[in-house]
């Protein structure tokens, strides 16, 4: 039976970060609370969408780059600032649903579109469907 | 052969300046750098020694580069006129189709 869960992506964009220079994000499955730089799929899962809760979650414009097995860019998201979950006109973050099979490695990079004056934490949530074996 | 060196030298100089500026958050368009290079090169190309060589590199490289850019922009806008509707329609159709699908 598939079930929905959330992966929390966190990163701190350093002051005067280079624009569009990728910064690796920490991946924390909400259920376990254990954080990973690289998340290896225990079972088939599909990334449905990404969102932020409020403007406070992303004070920096930027994009998510979802990478599979350290080599393949699955998709680059829409600007995370526009992904506020309460917005009724929220666009989809990705142009496809992104599937990962058991054993696939998920890494996510954050590409800041602007350079902040001070360190800025960014938190983005991935809506994920897990398929239990 | 000498022309090749001019072009490589100019490409390196322009890339280097663009890189340094972008590190400080300043974005200067390639065409602006080309125009600057042509103007500076034009005035200093008669100088003796290394100054003259650098100026000549800037002058010749700048001319080639600006020609390339103008040609590229003209080509792009003409192609845009010819195939105006095509790419966006295709893209939105593909996107709508893909939202339901899963990519592995």
Question: Would you write up a description of this structure?
Answer:
Chain A has no helices and 10 strands. With 133 residues, chain A is an all-beta fold. The model of chain A has no long low-confidence stretch (mean pLDDT 93). Chain A has a single domain, classed as Jelly Rolls (Sandwich). Chain B has 104 residues and is mainly alpha-helical. Chain B has one domain. Chain B has 4 helices and 1 strand; from the N terminus they run ααααβ. Classes of the chains: A mainly beta (133), B mainly alpha (104). At the A-B interface, strand 8 of A face helix 4 and strand 1 of B.
CATH fold group of chain A: Jelly Rolls
Structural class computed from helices and strand pairing of chain B: mainly alpha
What is the number of domains of chain B? 1
Global mean pLDDT of chain A: 93
**Major β-sheet of chain A, in short?**
5 strands, antiparallel
What is the chains' assembly state? heterodimer
Share of residues in strands of chain B: under 5%
**Mean pLDDT of chain B, rounded to whole units?**
78
Q: What percent of the residues of chain B sit in helical stretches (DSSP H or I)?
A: over 70%
Low confidence ranges of chain A: none
Strand segment tally of chain A: 10
Secondary-structure-derived class of chain A: mainly beta
The gross shape of chain B turns out to be elongated
The N- and C-terminal alpha carbons of chain B lie at a distance of 49 Å
E-strand count of chain B: 1
User: Compute the gyration radius of chain B: what is it?
Assistant: 20 Å
Architecture of chain A in CATH?
A: Sandwich
């Amino acid at each position: 039976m598939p079930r929905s869960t959330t992966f929390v992506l966190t990163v701190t964009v350093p002051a005067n970060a280079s624009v569009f220079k990728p910064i690796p994000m920490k991946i924390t499955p909400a259920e376990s609370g254990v954080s990973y730089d690289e998340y290896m799929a225990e079972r088939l899962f599909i990334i449905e969408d990404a969102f932020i809760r409020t403007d406070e979650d992303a004070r920096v414009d930027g994009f998510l780059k979802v990478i599979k097995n350290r080599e393949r860019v699955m998709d680059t998201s829409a600007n995370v600032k526009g992904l506020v979950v309460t917005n009724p006109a929220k666009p989809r973050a990705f142009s496809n649903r992104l599937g990962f099979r058991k054993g696939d490695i998920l890494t996510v990079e954050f590409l800041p579109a602007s350079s902040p004056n001070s360190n800025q934490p960014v938190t983005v949530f991935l809506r994920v469907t897990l398929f239990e074996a | 052969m000498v022309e090749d060196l001019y072009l490589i030298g100019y490409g390196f100089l322009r890339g280097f300046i663009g890189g340094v500026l972008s590190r400080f958050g300043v974005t200067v368009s390639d065409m602006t750098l080309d125009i600057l290079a042509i103007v500076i090169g034009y005035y200093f190309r008669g100088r003796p020694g290394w100054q003259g060589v650098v100026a000549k590199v800037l002058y010749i490289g700048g001319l080639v580069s600006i020609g390339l850019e103008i040609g590229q922009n003209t080509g792009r806008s003409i192609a845009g006129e010819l195939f105006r509707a095509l790419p966006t329609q295709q893209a939105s159709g593909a996107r709508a189709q893909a939202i339901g699908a899963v990519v592995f």
